[in-house]
Amino acid sequence: MAYQQKLAEKLTVLNERGRGVLIRMKHIKTVCSDPQLKPSFLTEKAMEPAVKYINKKFPNIDLRGNIVSTHQNLSGVQKQKSEILVALTSYYYSFIDVMEFRDHVYELLNTIDACQCFFNITVNFDFTKSYLDLIVTYTSVIMMLSRIDDRKVLTAMYNCAHEMSNGNSDPSYPRLGQMILEYDHPWKKLTEEFGPHTKSVTGAVLSLHMVYPRRNLGAEQWRSAQLLSLLSVPADMLSPACCETMPCEYLPMEVMERWIILGFLLCHSSLNTNQASQDLWKMALRSGLYITLIRDETINIHKVTEDYFDTLKGYVPFCVSVCYSGAIHKEKRQFLRNAIKELCKILEDEPGLLGPKALYVCMALAFSRDEVLWLVRHSENVPKTKTPEDYIDSQLAELLFYTEKLKTLMCRHSRVLQRYHLQYLAQFDALALNDTIQNMNVCPEEESVLMTSFVSTLSALTVKQVENGEEFDFRALRLDWLRLQAYTSVAKAPLCLKDYPDLAKIMNMTEFHTKMMDDIDGVLRETSDLSILCFYPRVFEKMFSQGCEDVLMQRYLIAFPLVCSHFNQCTHQMCPEEVSIEEHILRFCVTFLEEIAKQTCSIVLEICAEQCNLDDQLLPKHCAHTISTARNKKQKKQVPKKGEPTDQCDKNRGKNHYNLCHNRNINTSARKHMDKLHLTLTELCSSLNYCNHFTVWDHVIIPPEYLLSQLEINLAKVIVRMANYNKATHEITRPSDLLAGIKAYTSSLYTLSRYLSVDVTRLVKSVLLQQTQPLDSQGDQTITTLYTSWYLEGLLRQASSALIIHCPTMHCFVNQPNENETRFKAEEYSDVSELQALAELIGPYGLKFLTENLMWHITSQVSELKKLVIDNMDVLVQIRSNFDKPEAMTNLQTSENVLKRMTIIGVILSFRAMIQAALGDATLSVFELASAAGLSCDIDPALVTAIANMRTDGSSLEEEYKLTYLLLIYVAVSLPILAVDPNSYYSREYGGHHNNIHCLATAINQLSAAMFTAQNKNIEQHLKEFLFVASSTLLQLGQNVERTDSKNRDSIYLLLHMIVEESPFLSQDMLEKCFPYALLRNAYRDVYKSSIITLG
């Protein structure tokens, strides 16, 4: 009879099916509770009459009765019947699944009662557990169904749409509607249903009276028994940990409490008649306020009990005080932290002990999980108490960390566990089981076949199977043991399991040993699954933030991301719609890791900043102050003469002593601060360095990469902040100072590799390479952008106004002597060392960006010059033909403007030449970047490209060519005007003119070469023409000796010489043909004679 009922198979299948149905009900409740997720038909205003009508008439909605009323109320359903059918099908058939699940549970429970099955958790553990799980799962499904507020609307609206589309109602609807009505008050209906099953349920629950009280001890009793300690009895350290009820030792407390509370609520009659039932019930109630149905759905057991028992006559209130439960569980967590830490340390040092002490590990994981889940349930709903701190645990990170570490040890040393338990199974369990079978008086054929297969399977195991890496699979053996429990637990069975407790003991132990062989992951899920935390986001995040605030807990923070790897266990194949959970879980994990990385990054950069300050004090700019201070300290104190009062000396001595003590206190405080930073860094890096990687929902997570990402983002911000650029005042840090600061930061960052396995070189290269671009990876400005802006707007703009002078002698820019106070010294930002520092900071790519901006300014000036040439084109054409006639030049206008713009171009090109020289060591093979790499070119490729891109759509190449050579004529005939400017005099000290007109040489040579190259014309020919015209006009200037416009004539002569010297296309021979060398010699003599040189 028992063989035909297949009780074991049905319990297994129905429990799995029930879990899937339960998760579907939870999903429907979640969707319907969210206005953004629930079906639109339930929220549309046009559907409100239909929703109200269905709720009022449910379940009897007659579509053929009052046609007018029905049409008015259900017109919305009629219009959207097709869409409703599609949208509500999954909801409707989920409720059908509940109904079918209920039918199968009814049938199985009746069959079990008819068979008068025997249940005892310490004997037929799997059979009893499956039975109690089925009762709790069924109750939870019904409770979840009753919590779906829209259940009536969902089922009835679907049925209306079905009837409107097909002409008849869905066949399952009448029974489904009746079921939903019956469970409007679920506890009343459930207790009626379980009345006939009271004997079986009560018997199964009462079998916990030997297990639950032993598991529900306080921390003091655990401590006195030295629970989980391997060192309490050193002689027994190698002895295998085993007992008569091995599976019960790591059975979750929450599971047992659900069995007890829900079981006695469903079958409450025994509470008035059985003292053992009352004791067990009260003990479970005293443990807490809430039990879990599924995920974050809980029951306030005291409130439910009071409300239900108040409706019954003859029942006394069975609620008990739980005011101390918070303190009890707090003490338990404190004990477990120390006990599991000790267990981890021992097993980490001696992993061979994992074999004999595997049960201890499972117990430790289960106990920790029980306390964490209790805290999670009650943290969300803290009761009114005088000690709310009992429901807050800032040190939970440590407990989670060592729990994860125990799991890691079990997985890492799985071969150790397999080797040990294989020998245990083959050399002890098989022999003990065989002896037990031999001592049986009665052994029916079916049972004999099963037990014989157990012995043969275990006896065939050899150590070579582990050494060869074979995969073990004992699922069939465990299922056969469940079948055997079912066969031997029915009334009138030929072989009653309760008469052979030794068989149950050895088989329960064997089952545990087989799990250590092939299902370590399953045991770890059973004992340490914390996936419920996924559904308590506020509690989970609060626990993490509390751990972040405690320095001693920071090394354990990695436990929170690791716990996220449990969350993929919370889904079920019957609810594939829960795709958003994956994103939710990953967001949890990433948020935690980013927060740890941010804290670590903050500490690292603070240490770097302190080191940068120390390095800054050693820079040469502080040497004068340092030398002065050291010199003052060495000065000897004056000894007072005999007879003079010593009050002043005593006063100075006291003052010096005070200053010394004050400085010493400051130094001590600074050292303490740095020590604290390094301690915090050690703790955080220990957390990030705990594991190289782990997996969360098929995503590989690498914790150190999050730190590198944060360092990359924040280091870039620090570098930009160190530049200290103020756009309003045009202030910025000197490139050499910024470079020194970056080097200080970099050297400090390399110390991070002592704490953590990270590639600091890759980090620094990535950050500095981004700083050579206009924008970094976050879209923020870089130092390349800031320095480009400053040199253009701060330095070159003032140089264009002759407030700053280009000084070829010193290879820098210098400030023009001025009564007004200048904001910065140009030479401190433009000398060779500063520009080399700038080149090192922004590199060739940054220089290319700077060049592009310089070229933009040059092309802007060229555009204006072309306009001036066009305005004076007729005059320039005449001058070109008659440049030896001065009267032809009097018609020219805006000559000063032409020279001014050409000077600006010369200043920009001179600055660019200085930058190129600073970057002379870098080389690139691409011609377009050759200039940016510091290679000298006769014709600037960047300038050629910029000029070529200037050509307008309407202009022809010949027109551009004409404008170019006329521009040279324009400049040549305008040169004499410079003699009028009092600032046009040449300075021997600077090696140039005080109004920067010496930059005209650079502008004329490079601009003409670029423009004629872009137009594919002969450069040398046109420069010779320029030289002839310029020489002619300047010689005419020399004829007017008495006029004021010849005041700086000699300085202008030198300009002509500079043009020839800097040009790769002109030579001194060409110059002498059109301009007497004697004039140049005399000009140099007169200019240098007038210069005042001071020596010493």
UniProtKB/TrEMBL annotation:
Residues 630-651 are annotated as: Disordered. The lineage of its organism: Eukaryota, Metazoa, Chordata, Craniata, Vertebrata. One of its GO terms (cellular component) is SCAR complex. Residues 631-640 have a biased composition (Basic residues). This is NCK associated protein 1 like. PANTHER family: NCK-ASSOCIATED PROTEIN 1, NCK-ASSOCIATED PROTEIN 1-LIKE. GO terms for biological process: cell migration; cell projection assembly; cortical actin cytoskeleton organization; neuron projection morphogenesis. It comes from Scleropages formosus (Asian bonytongue). Pfam families: Nckap1 (PF09735). Residues 641-651 have a biased composition (Basic and acidic residues).
